[in-house]
User: What shape does this take?
Amino acid sequence: MSNKDSQTTASFGRGYFIFLIIFLGMLSAFGPFVTDMYLPTLPSMAEIFATTPSMVQMGLATSMLGLAVGQIFFGPLSDKFGRKKVLVSAMILFAISTIVCVYSPTIEVFNLSRFLQGLGGSGGIVLSRSVATDCYSGRELAKMLAIIGAVNGIAPVTAPVIGGVVAGAVGWQGIFWILFGIGMAILAMCLVFRESLPSERRYTGTIASLMSGFPKLFRMKFFMVYVLLYGFGCGVLFSYISSASFIIQNYFGFSELGFSLIFGVNALGIGVGSALSLKFRKMSNAALFGAGGAAVAAVLQLASHLLLDVFICYEVLTFITLVCVGFIFTAATTLAMDEGRAMVGTASALFGATGFLFGGLVSPLVSVGGNIMTTTVIMILICALAALLFATISAVHAKKVSAA
Assistant: This one.
């Protein structure tokens, strides 16, 4: 960490440092809350809106598309106008679109509102990485991202559990009122948040020229390696997320609450993997370990499904897979943000958008074919093997740099 970063960190004070961890954790948790909280209601929503499971799942895909597209705009804009103003604007959009979700008369209106909801929620996700990178670098950045990842692990743990309880009490609309409340809480916390990008460090060119940062990032070979590593890691995660309610409830016969508890236990794996990734001296090795482990777990999952097809095997191997995803996420995020430090907001935008773009692409695919369990396992295996390829490239590059 540079002297400038050290001075910035020291000036926080312990109280504000704790606030910052919680604040950034909540911002990064927006993705899991937006995507996961209503998962227990997906099967019942198909009946409520008198539509097919694929149309209901489209709401998951449109929200992830919004989470991807929004980061492309909010990230660069925060480089020019500062993190705080952009975050407040994003939270207002999130709040308005969430209310529209509640009162949607048709599944088409609901899916469109989910896109706008993801668009607003994307501001929190992209800025959580930008703010952390404003204040930290190197291993200190890795530690901060691991802490955020551990805090972020609370989101997928609590989101489906709360969703299952709320859905049983007041229906799916109650879930979206809770999401609205979370958005309002973050908006209130913005009053305490101190701008992390002072005016002298902001981009001074035009907005049009600001967007030219994306082609520059595309030409940064190893930044794109880390981005694709993260993207395929998200492919693994969202293949699981988009199919979990149907597999656990319809395929294995659990209730909504049972699904919520199982899903919550599995989500702890991401936090465990994020924390354990710091045991590696080089983040590239952590990524290689995580991607390799996910690929092995996927192969075993496919064999287990074809030969045994019992819940306990599915559950154990799913948990191991998500632990490995935690390794991938922390390592890929640290490597990418360090590599793209010259354009933090833009780098964070491209990085995060790629992850949700991959998620949006794989989510509808897991329901293709007659057996959602088989299709999901195959999709996870494909994404894990691709992640392993880019993790290997990253590890070889890091070894060459060390030897030079």
About this structure: The chain is about 85% helix and 0% strand.
